[in-house]
Amino acid sequence: MRCAYLGPWLLVSLAAAPLQAQPTRATLEGTVRDVYGNPIMGVNVVLIGTLYGAATDAHGYYVIENVPAGSYTVRASAVGYVPAEASVHLSPGARERIDFALVPTIVEAPEVVVTAARRAQPMEQVPVSLSVLPLSALAQRGIATLDEALRYVPGVQMAGNQVNIRGSSGFTYNAGSRVLLLVDGFPMLAPDADGIPFELLPMAQIDRIEVLKGPGSALYGSGALGGVVQVITRDFPEQAETEVWLSSGAYKPVRYAEWRAHWDGARQWRPFGTAIFTHARRLNDRLGGWIHATYLRDTGHLNANERTMLQGYAKLRWQPRADVRVVVLSGLTWRRSNAFLYWNGLRDPLNPGRIPASGSKDAVGTNDTQSLQWTFLPALTHVLSPQLFYTAGGRLYALALRPLDEQGRPKPLSKGTLGFRYGGQLQFDWQPTASQYLTLGATADALATRSSFFPEADHQPFRSQPEIAVFGQWEQALGLHWRLTGGLRFDAYQVRADRWITRLSPKTNLLFQAQRNLTLHAAFGLGFRVPSLAERYIENQDFFPIVSNPDLLPETSTGYELGLRYRKNAGSLAEMQLELALFRTEYQDLIEPRFQRERLAFQFVNLTHARIQGLETLLKLNLLSNRFESQLGYTWLDAKDLTGPQPLPLSFRSRHLFKGGLTIALPAQLNTGADLRLASRPERIDSEFARFVPDADVTVPVRVLDLRLSWQHPKLTLTLLVKNALDYYYVERPALLAPPRHLQLQLQWRP
C-alpha cells in the first residue's frame, strides 16, 4: 500500500484509522492493473464519502484495513488513467476483494496537486498555470538531476544553472533565484547564493515535480517571485521494494579539428554514469521508510569540467498515534567538481578562458571545489478533528565548500564557504464545509553564511538575513460553477542590523467551470523578492570582475493571468487536452547584472521598470488507448526593459519557446519516443561580458532533439537514449558550449 501525498482523505484518516484491527471491522484489498494486465503502482484507492484510502505498491496491490462495516463506493484513480469506481458491502470481520482495470488517459498530471494552494486539491480546481512531471517521465528520459528534468517542462528555459519560468529570470550564475525550490513543502535554496541545488535530490524516490508558473509570493514569500518548483517524494509501500538504477553513457568526440587541436580529450568518447540503489519497506505497524544512495561520475564534454558525487538520503514516517504523523527526510551529499565558467573563445571553446587581472594571478574560467551538504527536514502532522489539522516542520540546510588547489587538494574552509539556512513553519488547515477552505500559517527562517566572496563587516565573519512571515488564504465555492480564492502574506526581512524590509503580498484567483471538461480562470497577485546575499555582497576577481551593491532594493511585481483548460474524451480511440494562458507581469526594481564602466566591473543593479507578457499553449493527444501520446507546448514572450527612453529587450530571454514530445507503444513491450526543444536566439545579451571573455556575445537558437527506445519487463526496464541526436552545437548561456550528442544506456531492475 502506498499512501498518497497529503491527500485530504489520508490526512484526516490519521484520526479515523485505528492502529489495532477490531473484530467489528473489515478489510478491503485488491489489485489495480491497466487494460493490458500490467500492474499500476501509486494508484489512489479511496472509499468515497469516508476517510479511508490507500495506494497500490509495485505489484498493483492495495489494502485498506480497519474499515467499519457498511456499504461503500470504491474509487481508483491515478496519473494517466481514467478513474474507476465499484460498490462493495463490508460485513464485520470480512476481508473483501475488488480488482480494477484502468483505461489509459492523456492526463499526466495527478488528480491531486499541492503547490497551487499549499494543500491538496483536485487539478480541475487549480486557478493558475501548473505543470507536473511524474516519476515515469523522469525514468523514460534517464534524468538524474533536477535541471535536466525542468528542460522538458513547457514555458521553462534553462540558462546554464538558472531556472527561467516564462522569462522571469535572465542569467546571473545562479546568484539569486526568482524561482523557489520546495521539497515536500519546505524551501530548499542554497545558503550561499539563494540558488537552486539541482543535484540535492533523491531522484529515484521522487513521486512527481510540480511547476507553478507565475508569482507565488502570496503563499511562499520572497523566493517565489517568478514561480515555484516543488519536488514531492514518495512514501513507503506496504510490501518491501528494492530498485537498482544503472545508467552509463558517453559524449561524442568533437567533429571540428580546430577545436580538437587545443584539447586531446575532445578526440575521445567522454564517459559518464550513475548508479542508484533504493530500498523501501514498512518496519512495523507504526514505522516505515526508504533509503536512497547515488553515485554519479561525469568526465564532462569540456576540459576541466568533471564532477563526482556521492549521496545518501533516508525518509522515515512514524505514526505513534492514529491522529499523529511524524515524517523526517534527511540527506548527505559529497561533491567534487570542476565547474566550467567560460570558454577561451569560439576558436577554443573546450578550454576555460583567462582574464588578465590587476593582482598577481589572472582570473580563470573554472572553479574547482569540494563540498559537503546536509539537509534535515522533520515534519509533524496532528489531526484535531475531521475538519481541522495542523503541520509543524523545521528545516536545516548546511553547506561546507572548499576550493581545490592546483594539485586538487582542498584548501582550508576559510578560503571557501560555510553556510547554514534554517527555520520552521506552522500551518493550520480548516475545512468547515465542503465549499470552504482556510489556510493559515507562519514561517521563520534565517541564514548565516561565511564566504571568501563576501567581505567581512564590523568584524562579523557571518553574513545573515533573518525573515519572518504570516500568511492566510480563504477558498470559497460560489454555487456549482464559480470558485473564489483570496490570499495575503506579510513578510519582514532584516537586511541590516538597523533595517527591516516589510511587504504585503495579496492575491486573488477566480475559477469558472463552464462545463464538466472546460474551466476558465483569472489570477492577480503582487510579488516581491529581497536581494540575495550574493547579489548584495559578492566581491570577486578570481573568475571575473564583480563588485558588491549593498544598497540594492527589493524587486516587486504585479502579475495577471487568464487561462483555459479543456479536455475532450472520445473513449479509448482518442483524447485531447488543451491549455491556454495569457500572462503579463510588471516588474519594479528588477535586479540584473550590468557592467559599470567607471568601476570596470559587473554589479547587480535595479532596473526601475520592466514588463514581461506573452501567451502559452499546451496540447496533449492520446490515440488508441495510450499507444500514441504526444505533447506540444509553445510559449511566446515579450520581455522589455522600460528603464530608458526607448524600450529594450530584457537580456537572455528567448521570444519563442517550443517543447514537443512523442511516445509510441510498439509490439513486444517496446516503446519509442522523441523530445524536441526549440528556443529562438535571445534578442539581447549583455555584450559587455565580451570585453573580458572572447566571443561571449555569441548566441544561437536552441535546437535539441532527443531519441529513446525502451523495453519493459515486470522486473526489468532497459532504455537506450540518444540526446542531442543532431549533434547540434549551441549555448544556453554566454561562453559555455552545451553538451554535444551523447549516448546513454539505462537499466532499472526491481528484484
Q: Give average pLDDT, whole number.
A: 87
- What's the story with the biggest beta sheet? 22 strands, antiparallel, barrel
User: What's the total count of β strands?
Assistant: 47
The proportion of residues forming helix, as a percent range, comes to under 10%
Strand content: over 45%
Distance between the termini: 18 Å
Number of helices: 6
Rg computed from alpha carbons, rounded to a whole number of angstroms? 26 Å
Structure classification: mainly beta
Low-confidence stretches: 1-21, 106-110
Shape: globular
Structure, explained:
This protein has a 22-stranded antiparallel β-barrel. Strands 1, 4, 6, 8 and 9 form a five-stranded mixed sheet that branches. It has a five-stranded mixed sheet with strand order 12-17-18-15-16. The radius of gyration is 26 Å and the shape is globular. The chain starts with 7 loop residues before the first helix and ends with a strand. The protein has 751 residues and is mainly β. Mean pLDDT is 87; it is low at 1-21 and 106-110.
